[in-house]
Write a structure and sequence with these properties.
310 residues, alpha/beta, binds nicotinamide-adenine-dinucleotide, globular, UDP-galactose 4-epimerase, domain 1, three-stranded mixed β-sheet
């Protein structure tokens, strides 16, 4: 298969490229490098340096590569940026995504896989609940609203013959995640612990608590689901990708601190505006299809080891 990965030079997209290439597919990345890096791409994966808002450049890339399947990872991927710049977020995440869908429809692409969000789309998940796909979404940020809007457009494109799979990711972490943004606490902690720089635990309810609860999921699990969906082999058109297990920020930090002799100062700050306190996904369809996801006990040391090697 010829697989085009939008956002392929980013964190998750580069892992999708790598694994798709390793399993024998012809792979290309399409990325404007606004956040991604060329060096994230494995050798043998050409890059179309294109902004998904640029319809003509997109059409040219599709005409050149003629993808059978598209993994659409390209996005303005930060919730807090979307809160500050909702128009820019919608421009990239809604209009840009429609451009990609239009290009798929115009160039006979068979499968479209959409990187949506389970972490932001369901809103607050009270203890001991898990967010199942049937739960009505409560998109509290422009970022989540944009992802939900694109999910809505897929009915229209399915009717036009494009097979579409929505993967709602939990909080994904792993090698190559950008440690310099506002999201991606695992990458931020790894980088700052290794640099001896101070780290902060943003409160869940009040400063000094153990921080928000999230469903931290290793990137390989997201890649598995993407590859199956790209081949039309994902049994569910809408699926949560996560572990179903909540981990608080303090536990995350302690697990990473146990991987070395770190001297970073830790401060405890009030809750961050817009952060939900608890977000955990119901993932039994994912587990039934792809097996048990990697635990944080295994995934965090692997991630720290990668940052150490750098
Ligand atoms: N990381 C997570 O925890 C998480 C959770 C839920 C959903 N997602 C979604 O998964 C996808 C990948 O996220 P990531 O964590 O790898 O982020 P990332 O920022 O590393 O990757 C996104 C890529 O898209 C590219 N991009 C941004 N705007 C573009 C544009 N206008 N045209 C072309 N390329 C553009 C960036 O340069 C970057 O390489 C995104 O759609 C994100 O919303 C991520």
């Amino acid at each position: 298969m010829r697989i085009l990965v939008t956002g392929g030079a980013g964190f998750i997209g580069s892992h999708v490229c790598e694994q798709a290439l390793a399993t024998g597919h012809e792979v290309a990345a399409l990325d404007d490098l606004s956040n991604g890096k060329r060096e994230n791409l494995p050798e043998g994966v050409p890059l179309f340096e294109v902004d998904i808002r640029d319809k003509d450049a997109l059409a040219k890339a599709f005409a050149d590569f003629r993808p059978d399947a598209v993994s659409h990872q390209a996005a303005q991927a930060s919730v807090s940026v979307s809160v500050r710049e909702p128009l820019m977020d919608a421009d990239v995440n809604v209009l840009g995504s429609i451009n990609v869908l239009e290009a798929c429809a115009a160039h006979d692409c068979a499968n479209f896989v959409f990187a949506s969000t389970g972490g932001a789309i369901y809103g607050e998940i009270a203890e001991p609940e898990l967010a199942a796909v049937g739960r009505p979404p409560i998109p509290e940020s422009p970022y989540a609203a944009a992802k939900l809007a694109v999910e809505g457009y897929l009915t229209f494109y399915r009717d036009r013959g494009l097979s579409c799979t929505v993967l709602r990711y939990a909080n994904i972490y792993g090698p190559r995640q950008d440690p310099h943004g506002e999201a991606g606490v695992v990458a931020i902690f790894c980088q700052r612990l290794l640099a001896g720089a101070p780290v902060q635990v943003n409160a869940r309810a009040e400063a000094g608590d153990r921080g928000c609860l999230r469903d931290y999921t290793y990137v390989d699990d997201v890649v598995k689901a993407n590859l199956a969906a790209l081949g039309g082999e994902c049994p569910h058109p809408l699926m949560n990708i996560g572990t179903g297990i909540a981990t608080d920020t303090q536990t995350l930090l302690e697990t990473l601190q146990a991987q070395g002799d770190f001297s970073s100062e830790v401060s405890f700050t009030p809750p961050r505006e817009g952060d939900v306190q608890r977000s955990v996904l119901e993932v039994s369809p994912f587990v039934d299809t792809f097996g048990t996801p990697m635990s944080v006990a295994e995934g965090l040391p692997k991630t720290m080891a990668w940052f150490k090697d750098r």
